[in-house]
């Protein structure tokens, strides 16, 4: 029991660090580990994941707001679609068998790995203030460059559609949806990757909270596991925001991609043999 609690603390810690670096919420790590290595039912693992994701995202976002990294207006505009998708996805998920949900999760993991591998990072920000700053256009503090930079947001309506799909994924599978939100904001709307990651973490707070409601109402929850992992997530978020502000995430991203592919295979096996 003690060993399991220590492992859960470590899982919460690592998920929060990855959430900070990649803006993905951490559910892509939490759910498969709970299912494959701890033997949790898929629905229960998703419920725990969503609660932990909310906790870590709140902790990370509180720091990002102070560092002037979050585009609040854009986040609130996009999040209306994400919440609708999350609630719908959660309602659909609780009525889907564990075998089907495992297979869907494996497919999402493979797609996630591909997106993270192929994702092109766009940065058209500038130290000069644009003459025609729009409603969603703003500045952010680039810690790596040590300077304030400005950017313009393009095609927010197209990004909103992707965010809606991310919300469905979040509600169904316990993901924060950031793996879709971050590339959409960066590639489609031209939000610099660091600002997109911070904005995604802010949005994930609401998406995951909305997606967790159907699971909690159906009784799919494990308080001890969730509470332990939340403690680990708070510690991980404090460590990441204090020590990793200037760290490049390329090496971590590659390892995470390999892990996602490994887990996808494990989830397929579980779906076939369950």
TrEMBL record:
Belongs to the 4-toluene sulfonate uptake permease (TSUP) (TC 2.A.102) family. It comes from the Bacteria. GO terms for cellular component: plasma membrane. It is a multi-pass membrane protein. This is Probable membrane transporter protein. The keyword Transmembrane applies. Pfam families: TauE. Keywords: Cell membrane, Membrane, Transmembrane, Transmembrane helix. The chain crosses the membrane at residues 7-40, 46-67, 74-94, 100-117, 159-180, 220-240, 252-269. The lineage of its organism: Bacteria, Pseudomonadati, Deferribacterota, Deferribacteres, Deferribacterales.
